[in-house]
Amino acid sequence: MKNLLVTGYRAHELNIYDDKHPGIPFIKQAIRARLIDLAEAGLEWVITPGQYGVDLWACEVVLELRELYPGLRVSILAAYEHPEANWKEEKQTYYRELTQQVDYYGVVSQQPYQGTWQLAARDDLLLRKSDGILLFYDEERGEASPRFIKQRAWRKHEREGYGYYLITAEEVQSLADEAQYESYVE
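Now predict its structure.
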């Protein structure tokens, strides 16, 4: 697998409203573990839609992993121009700084948000440009925005053998529990 789409929940869908939330490091740890395995097997590009949450945390992880895997690249393919325009100022700054660090930043529609067709067009492109998906999604949490890409990726997996990797809330909770236990033992 050379090109991997990484996406999942938006931060607010996880009840995360600032970058100091104690769950973020464990989400990033789960992403990092999967990316290391795939990088060892030849992964070259991580592609994200660039939404605030799992997408951008994955970009941060790839940027950190470059020390170990200098050939690993990261891309943000946003659905439309200035997706961060309505975010709080600190999130806008974070987004803009991150887009300056990625290897490629592009938008599918050269216009501001006009409709869900832009999101569908972005997802079409992301699925075409990737060999598989790493998705943070948990059926038990109920339906949320990642369900659309999940359904499409699963169909592509069944039809074409598209790679399909899932991170669940249980996996992230297990990492948090392990860290808590280790700090308790020390």
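The chain has one domain: 3-185.
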